[in-house]
Amino acid sequence: MSIGANISAIKEELKNTKVKLIAVSKTKPAESIAEAYAAGQRVFGENTVQELVEKYDTLPKDIEWHLIGHLQSNKVKYIAPFISMIHSVDSLKLAQEINKQAVKNGRVIDCLLQIYIADEDTKFGLDFAEAIELLRSEEFVELKNIRIRGVMGIATLTENQRMIKDEFYELKTFFTGLKETFYRKDADFTEISMGMSGDYKLAIEQGSTLIRLGSTLFGVRAKKTKTA
User: Cα dist. 82→24, 69, 102, 228 in Å?
Assistant: First the structure.
Protein backbone atom coordinates (compact mmCIF):
# COMPACT_ATOMS: atom_id res chain seq x y z
CA MET A 1 0.00 0.00 0.00
CA SER A 2 1.02 3.61 -0.50
CA ILE A 3 1.94 5.97 2.33
CA GLY A 4 -1.36 7.76 1.84
CA ALA A 5 -3.32 4.51 2.04
CA ASN A 6 -1.44 3.47 5.18
CA ILE A 7 -2.27 6.79 6.86
CA SER A 8 -5.92 6.50 5.88
CA ALA A 9 -6.07 2.97 7.32
CA ILE A 10 -4.59 4.03 10.67
CA LYS A 11 -6.82 7.09 10.90
CA GLU A 12 -9.83 4.89 10.26
CA GLU A 13 -8.62 2.65 13.08
CA LEU A 14 -8.34 5.67 15.40
CA LYS A 15 -11.65 7.21 14.32
CA ASN A 16 -13.59 6.54 17.51
CA THR A 17 -10.71 7.25 19.88
CA LYS A 18 -8.98 10.37 21.16
CA VAL A 19 -5.59 9.05 20.04
CA LYS A 20 -3.41 11.31 17.87
CA LEU A 21 -1.13 9.86 15.21
CA ILE A 22 2.48 11.04 15.07
CA ALA A 23 4.10 10.00 11.79
CA VAL A 24 7.71 9.15 12.65
CA SER A 25 9.60 10.50 9.65
CA LYS A 26 13.19 9.97 10.82
CA THR A 27 15.49 8.94 7.94
CA LYS A 28 12.60 9.43 5.48
CA PRO A 29 13.10 11.79 2.52
CA ALA A 30 11.08 14.96 2.14
CA GLU A 31 9.20 13.33 -0.75
CA SER A 32 7.78 10.66 1.57
CA ILE A 33 6.75 13.27 4.12
CA ALA A 34 5.13 15.32 1.35
CA GLU A 35 3.14 12.23 0.35
CA ALA A 36 1.94 11.81 3.94
CA TYR A 37 1.16 15.52 4.07
CA ALA A 38 -0.91 15.23 0.89
CA ALA A 39 -2.90 12.48 2.62
CA GLY A 40 -3.79 14.92 5.38
CA GLN A 41 -1.14 14.07 7.98
CA ARG A 42 0.14 17.16 9.81
CA VAL A 43 1.96 15.79 12.86
CA PHE A 44 5.46 14.38 12.37
CA GLY A 45 8.12 13.11 14.78
CA GLU A 46 11.89 13.28 14.36
CA ASN A 47 14.70 11.79 16.45
CA THR A 48 17.54 14.20 15.74
CA VAL A 49 17.75 17.96 15.80
CA GLN A 50 19.77 18.24 12.58
CA GLU A 51 17.29 16.24 10.54
CA LEU A 52 14.36 18.03 12.13
CA VAL A 53 15.73 21.49 11.29
CA GLU A 54 16.52 20.50 7.69
CA LYS A 55 12.98 19.22 7.16
CA TYR A 56 11.37 22.19 8.88
CA ASP A 57 13.22 24.49 6.48
CA THR A 58 11.99 22.70 3.34
CA LEU A 59 8.49 21.45 4.19
CA PRO A 60 5.14 23.28 4.73
CA LYS A 61 5.02 25.50 7.79
CA ASP A 62 1.70 24.19 9.10
CA ILE A 63 3.36 20.89 10.04
CA GLU A 64 3.39 20.20 13.79
CA TRP A 65 6.88 18.91 14.59
CA HIS A 66 7.57 16.68 17.61
CA LEU A 67 11.09 15.87 18.84
CA ILE A 68 10.83 12.27 20.04
CA GLY A 69 14.51 11.32 20.39
CA HIS A 70 17.07 12.14 23.05
CA LEU A 71 17.78 15.87 23.18
CA GLN A 72 21.09 17.41 24.21
CA SER A 73 20.83 20.73 26.01
CA ASN A 74 23.21 22.48 23.59
CA LYS A 75 20.89 21.75 20.66
CA VAL A 76 17.65 23.09 22.10
CA LYS A 77 18.26 26.54 20.61
CA TYR A 78 17.96 25.20 17.05
CA ILE A 79 14.39 23.93 17.48
CA ALA A 80 13.05 26.35 20.13
CA PRO A 81 11.59 28.82 17.58
CA PHE A 82 9.20 26.29 16.04
CA ILE A 83 8.97 22.94 17.86
CA SER A 84 5.42 21.89 18.81
CA MET A 85 6.32 19.34 21.47
CA ILE A 86 9.44 17.77 22.99
CA HIS A 87 8.77 14.21 24.19
CA SER A 88 12.12 13.55 25.83
CA VAL A 89 12.61 15.76 28.89
CA ASP A 90 14.73 13.61 31.18
CA SER A 91 16.61 16.04 33.45
CA LEU A 92 16.31 19.36 35.24
CA LYS A 93 19.24 20.69 33.17
CA LEU A 94 17.37 20.00 29.92
CA ALA A 95 14.14 21.49 31.25
CA GLN A 96 15.99 24.65 32.28
CA GLU A 97 17.58 25.01 28.85
CA ILE A 98 14.24 24.52 27.08
CA ASN A 99 12.75 27.18 29.34
CA LYS A 100 15.66 29.55 28.64
CA GLN A 101 15.31 29.17 24.87
CA ALA A 102 11.51 29.45 25.09
CA VAL A 103 11.90 32.79 26.88
CA LYS A 104 14.28 34.00 24.16
CA ASN A 105 11.70 33.13 21.52
CA GLY A 106 8.72 34.50 23.42
CA ARG A 107 7.12 31.05 23.61
CA VAL A 108 5.85 28.45 26.03
CA ILE A 109 7.09 25.06 24.80
CA ASP A 110 5.02 21.94 25.37
CA CYS A 111 6.97 18.98 26.74
CA LEU A 112 6.58 15.44 28.03
CA LEU A 113 8.60 13.80 30.78
CA GLN A 114 10.35 10.74 29.38
CA ILE A 115 9.83 7.90 31.85
CA TYR A 116 12.00 4.80 31.86
CA ILE A 117 9.66 1.79 31.75
CA ALA A 118 11.63 -0.78 29.71
CA ASP A 119 13.32 -3.83 31.20
CA GLU A 120 16.56 -3.21 29.31
CA ASP A 121 19.61 -0.98 29.54
CA THR A 122 19.08 2.55 28.31
CA LYS A 123 20.74 5.87 29.00
CA PHE A 124 17.63 7.99 28.83
CA GLY A 125 14.48 8.50 30.84
CA LEU A 126 13.58 9.29 34.43
CA ASP A 127 12.53 6.54 36.78
CA PHE A 128 9.37 7.15 38.80
CA ALA A 129 11.22 8.51 41.85
CA GLU A 130 13.40 10.84 39.76
CA ALA A 131 10.36 12.26 37.96
CA ILE A 132 8.63 13.03 41.27
CA GLU A 133 11.81 14.60 42.64
CA LEU A 134 12.07 16.77 39.52
CA LEU A 135 8.48 17.99 39.78
CA ARG A 136 8.91 18.80 43.47
CA SER A 137 12.13 20.78 43.02
CA GLU A 138 11.99 24.54 43.48
CA GLU A 139 14.17 25.04 40.40
CA PHE A 140 11.64 23.22 38.23
CA VAL A 141 8.62 25.03 39.66
CA GLU A 142 10.27 28.33 38.70
CA LEU A 143 10.24 27.44 34.99
CA LYS A 144 7.32 29.35 33.47
CA ASN A 145 7.99 28.88 29.73
CA ILE A 146 7.90 25.10 29.70
CA ARG A 147 4.53 23.36 29.92
CA ILE A 148 4.50 19.70 30.93
CA ARG A 149 1.67 18.08 28.99
CA GLY A 150 2.17 14.49 30.19
CA VAL A 151 4.58 11.56 29.91
CA MET A 152 6.34 9.48 27.27
CA GLY A 153 7.64 5.93 27.50
CA ILE A 154 9.21 3.25 25.31
CA ALA A 155 8.40 -0.39 26.09
CA THR A 156 10.89 -3.22 26.07
CA LEU A 157 11.69 -4.58 22.60
CA THR A 158 10.31 -8.07 23.11
CA GLU A 159 7.78 -10.55 21.75
CA ASN A 160 6.36 -10.89 25.28
CA GLN A 161 3.02 -9.11 24.97
CA ARG A 162 2.27 -9.42 28.69
CA MET A 163 5.49 -7.58 29.56
CA ILE A 164 4.72 -4.77 27.11
CA LYS A 165 1.17 -4.48 28.38
CA ASP A 166 2.37 -4.30 31.99
CA GLU A 167 4.91 -1.58 31.14
CA PHE A 168 2.24 0.51 29.43
CA TYR A 169 -0.10 -0.06 32.37
CA GLU A 170 2.60 1.17 34.77
CA LEU A 171 3.10 4.33 32.72
CA LYS A 172 -0.64 5.04 32.59
CA THR A 173 -0.90 4.46 36.35
CA PHE A 174 2.05 6.79 36.96
CA PHE A 175 0.49 9.45 34.72
CA THR A 176 -2.72 9.24 36.75
CA GLY A 177 -0.74 9.65 39.98
CA LEU A 178 1.09 12.72 38.64
CA LYS A 179 -2.21 14.20 37.49
CA GLU A 180 -3.71 13.79 40.97
CA THR A 181 -0.63 15.03 42.83
CA PHE A 182 0.82 17.80 40.66
CA TYR A 183 -1.63 18.68 37.89
CA ARG A 184 -5.11 18.24 39.35
CA LYS A 185 -6.17 21.72 38.23
CA ASP A 186 -4.19 21.72 34.98
CA ALA A 187 -6.41 21.01 31.98
CA ASP A 188 -3.32 20.73 29.73
CA PHE A 189 -1.83 17.67 31.48
CA THR A 190 -3.49 15.11 29.22
CA GLU A 191 -0.91 13.27 27.10
CA ILE A 192 0.52 9.76 27.31
CA SER A 193 2.93 9.16 24.43
CA MET A 194 3.39 5.41 24.14
CA GLY A 195 3.11 2.88 21.38
CA MET A 196 5.10 2.40 18.18
CA SER A 197 4.53 0.30 15.06
CA GLY A 198 5.02 -3.03 16.86
CA ASP A 199 2.96 -2.34 19.97
CA TYR A 200 0.61 0.59 19.36
CA LYS A 201 -2.58 -1.50 19.69
CA LEU A 202 -1.56 -2.57 23.20
CA ALA A 203 -0.65 1.04 24.00
CA ILE A 204 -4.07 2.29 22.92
CA GLU A 205 -5.72 -0.37 25.10
CA GLN A 206 -3.72 0.90 28.06
CA GLY A 207 -4.60 4.57 27.55
CA SER A 208 -2.14 6.07 25.08
CA THR A 209 -3.13 9.44 23.60
CA LEU A 210 -0.17 9.78 21.20
CA ILE A 211 1.14 6.89 19.09
CA ARG A 212 4.43 7.17 17.20
CA LEU A 213 4.34 5.16 13.97
CA GLY A 214 7.11 4.93 11.39
CA SER A 215 7.35 1.66 9.46
CA THR A 216 3.56 1.11 9.63
CA LEU A 217 3.15 4.28 7.55
CA PHE A 218 6.33 4.59 5.51
CA GLY A 219 7.34 0.94 5.16
CA VAL A 220 10.43 -0.80 6.46
CA ARG A 221 13.63 0.95 5.50
CA ALA A 222 15.53 -0.98 2.83
CA LYS A 223 18.89 -2.28 4.02
CA LYS A 224 21.91 -1.05 2.15
CA THR A 225 23.74 -3.72 0.20
CA LYS A 226 27.51 -3.79 0.30
CA THR A 227 29.31 -3.19 -2.96
CA ALA A 228 32.59 -4.82 -3.80
Answer: 18, 16, 10, 44
